[in-house]
Specification:
Strand content: 15-25%
Distance between the termini: 52 Å
Radius of gyration: 29 Å
Structural class: alpha+beta
Largest sheet: 7 strands, mixed
Shape: elongated
Number of helices: 15
Helix content: 25-40%
Length: about 500
Amino acid sequence: MHITVWGNRKPLEREMWENTQDGTPGSWFRVTIPCGIQYDKTWLMNSIQSHCGVPFTPVDFHFMHNGAQFFVQEASTASALMDVSNKICDEESRKVCIPVFVSPSAAPYSVRDKLKPEEMEHLKLTLSKRFDVSQQALDLRRLRVDPGLLGHGIDIILNRRSCMAATLQIIKKNFPELLSLNLSSSKLNQLDGLSDIIQMAPTVKILNLSKNKLKSVWELSKMKGLKLEELWLQGNPLCGTFPDWSTYVRAIRDRFPKLLRLDGQELPSPVTVDVDTPYVVKPCKGSYFGSDKLKRQVLQFLQQFYLIHDCGDRQCLVGSYHEQACFSLTIPFHPKDPAPSSLYEYFKDSRNMKKLKDPHLRVQLLKHTKRDIVHTLCVLPKTQHDFSSFVVDTWSQTERMLCFSVNGVFKEVEGSSQGCVRAFTRTFIATPASYSRAHFSFNLCIVNDELFVRDASPSETQSVFSIPVPTPTSSSMHTLSQEQQDIMQASSTRPEVNL
């Protein structure tokens, strides 16, 4: 059916289009929001309603592919929705430019195939028999062939939005504390109807979707926001679309960050920020740590990291990064700038988002995995950091995550720019090593590393390196303190352990 983009139609064309409708209460219109799956359902519908000239009740809201869809009645409501297109703003009053498409439609499935009151009663009795009160668990496996339904000629196909909607309505009213829902072997090939589970059964922590026909992980995005702790997907075609287990886990955790078990296997503790009760350390002037314990932890890590970075084999830094860590380097430099810059050696790895317009290159310059990161660090110029210049700001801390930044200067000690002093800011997001899947000689495990490098100002250059520092040669180990040598020796001899 032809889709009309209301935002692009002239008033006269709109009036002519409306006159082609019969205007009766039975008229239905489909409203489509392309890429609607990326928005929270509640926020999206509230935003559309706030910009719509007339109140309306969306019927059969669901996600389909990457978009969102619902239905409304009467041409006047459809006409009012045309003015919503590209006018929605986010919480900071910035236009999001969400297009809204409207077209005439037959009645939605949930209306056409709506269960009769007596059918709803039989479905309710059937679900009650399948409900385990002690476990707050509901087993809907092979619901279609349940004798309690077949005996009354009721055909419940959970792949139909109308049947799933009826089931969720009963769950909301009769099992409000539901913790576990089993939908395995239900021949589900899409989860449009299950998108309402976030509103209808928000307490569900365990969901079994095994042995269905789900082909794409995007189907799970329709339930994004559900705080699942255990999920079963084995037996679905989508499981075969991932090259390995770790990629599979990451894709599922993108949708359900609090997941602890997948297909019966325990997962490592997720590295997430508890946005409900975080302990946030407010930034302040100069170094700030929040506590002496945190200060010791951060300074120990920085000392070890930069001693290896400056005077040792940088390959040993692989033990400080998570297996899937990210790293990016940025410099305030572009090859077309009229003034030459000594930062040219850094340019090939720079991911300056203000000047880099190629989306493919943006992705390419974001280094993933600890081995790619360390390879990048190894080809950067040899350095000597001035520890006395470091200013550390520990700006966020939770039980499982630590965010801190360090500002300072370093000197290049080899190559054409030998003796040049650089200023840097480096932001680390790390998790305590005890939360990772291996034991390191490092006390923190980096999951994100952002490095900004610029030419130091004259005052920064004059105020540092008042004491001669060793260059990273084979003899430099003899100029380090015994404590520093012990750290270097432990880091270089400890075998690498995968995270």
